[in-house]
Amino acid sequence: MDDKVITSIFKRVGQEPYARKLGMRLVELERGRAVVEMEAREDTTNILGMIHGGAIFSLIDEAFQASCNSHGTIAVALNVTITYHQPPDIKSTLWAESREIHRSQKTASYEISVKDEKDTLVASCIALAYRKKEKLPFLTDSEKDRQSRTAGG
After folding, report:
1. Is residue 87 part of a domain?
2. Total domains present in the chain
3. Could you give the angle at the alpha carbon of 62 between the alpha carbons of 51 and 45, nearest 5°?
4. Interatomic CA distance for residues 153 and 137, integer angstroms
5. Which domain range does residue 113 map to?
6. Which of 19, 49, 127, 145 could form a disulfide with 110 if both were Cys (CB 3.0 to 4.6 A apart)?
7. Which long-range contacts (C-beta less than 8 Å, at least 24 apart) are formed by 19-25?
8. For the whole prediction, is pTM greater than 0.85?
9. What CATH number is attached to the domain comprising 97?
10. Cα torsion angle, 106, 80, 27, 123, sign
11. Rounded-to-integer distance, Cα 72 and Cα 134, Å
């Protein structure tokens, strides 16, 4: 895996306003795999006092985004199916791990799980990405040129 792509994605996630707003942090990234963590907080609860499903979805989507773009070309979500298994404790740390299970020239499939610090499965997900040919727009020009020479990601 090219370190420049990894470094660039780490930097972009760190600067992403939405991820920062929810306190999400990219903690691991390699080709086709990412782990993102988030502290459950009072301001992410729903009307029942549980962590909002939208906050959990956001954590899943952040890990999905990092893993499917880790090949250096733009990939966007086509379909995301989530199953919520158990609400996390309001003071827990949550981790979403996205793993690529299949990749073709145009699409890629991912399994994503969300767990807490007790290794309790909070949610699971199957996601499908559409893989574009364009390189990630935030890579340097020299990195874009190198990625073009190694087409196919």
Report:
1. yes
2. 1
3. 10
4. 15
5. 3-144
6. 127
7. 19/62, 22/55, 22/58, 22/59, 24/58, 24/59, 24/62
8. yes
9. 3.10.129.10
10. negative
11. 9
